[in-house]
Amino acid sequence: MDKDPFKEYIKESEPDKRDKGYAWHTAIGLQAVDGLKTSEYLVRTAVRNIEGEITFEEANELLQSYYKENPARDASDRTEEADKVSARIAALLSERAFSFTPNEYLSIHRKLFTGIYSHAGRIRDYNITKKEWVLNGATVLYGSATELRATLDYDFSEEKKFSYKNLSMDEIIHHLAYFVSRLWQIHVFGEGNTRTTAVFFIKYLRTLGFDVTNDIFAENAWYFRNSLFRANYNDLKNGIHETTEYLETFLRNLLLDENHPLHNRTLHISGAFGEPEKVNIDEEKANIGKEKVNIEDVFTAKTASHIQELREKLGQQAVFGRSDVQNALGLKPTRSSALLREMAEHGIIEPVSGHGKGKYRFRQQ
């Protein structure tokens, strides 16, 4: 979406349009946690729903018909998943019904992913690991498959017993960060865990009296995801400790309308992508066409992760082409070419002559 069509609705004085605008904006934004992007057709359908032309049920029916007539040509194209799950999330966020139970959590996953994942609504029965950019290729230790239901039940029972009475807002936010990070870390589902947890958490926050109708989740879904990793990862020999500080910063913006910067580079465990260097203003003006790009603000989560991984594997000075991208990232030729094109368009890489056709290197930072 070149222009965000939902901003005006979030600011709408008419409650129904505001709430629907928030629901759709959040639903679409949450697809970034799995590197997915929605279609323009979905956006147009969402706007029709917000304007009252069609119901959520009709929106879902339109999407079903659309993808019957326009099936994906490539198995790697997950736009249909992004569109359908967005519509389902928007519908769930527009409902006020909610019960704080493990079954509700499982039900949300089933509602979001029926027809998309064969295991929709089911607890995984296998162990998983996932290499993550923010952890420099390491993985969080997720819940053991044999203990998932017991662990889930325990976390819910502990939260039900917890009292927020007489707590300061700092203490409330710290506890909420701890609760949602532990719920997410169980990783009850094989796929769709973060999106399900986010929807459940938003609905739970409402029962605690928080309005949660701003654009924080929509515009910072990847930061939310990465802060969950940092809340559940230890590498003590290298001085890395699990911390909820990043998640608490996210929640302060979400719940208290504070305005802390949420940059994914600050979450990377290496510290190599910390605060940006200070730029000489005169030099910046002279090189206006070569501005540095914060990749997490421009690309999808998946593409940004590929760019960071490529930079780490190939280095700043290396000259590379499509085959090098394929080998480094394990991508198909068409996707490797598309990634090179996207990076070149945003000035992240520059063409290099004298090494054959289609060769590039990372632009000097």
UniProtKB/TrEMBL annotation:
Keywords in alphabetical order: ATP-binding, Nucleotide-binding, Nucleotidyltransferase, Transferase
UniProt enzyme class: transferase
InterPro entries (UniProt xref): Fido, Fido-like_dom_sf, VbhA-like
Keyword Oxidoreductase: no
Enzyme Commission (EC) number: 2.7.7.108
Residues covered by the Fido domain: 100-249
Catalytic function, reaction form: L-threonyl-[protein] + ATP = 3-O-(5'-adenylyl)-L-threonyl-[protein] + diphosphate; L-tyrosyl-[protein] + ATP = O-(5'-adenylyl)-L-tyrosyl-[protein] + diphosphate
One GO MF term: AMPylase activity
Any matching Pfam family: Fic
BP GO annotations: regulation of cell division
Protein name: protein adenylyltransferase
The species this protein was found in: Clostridium scindens (strain ATCC 35704 / DSM 5676 / VPI 13733 / 19)
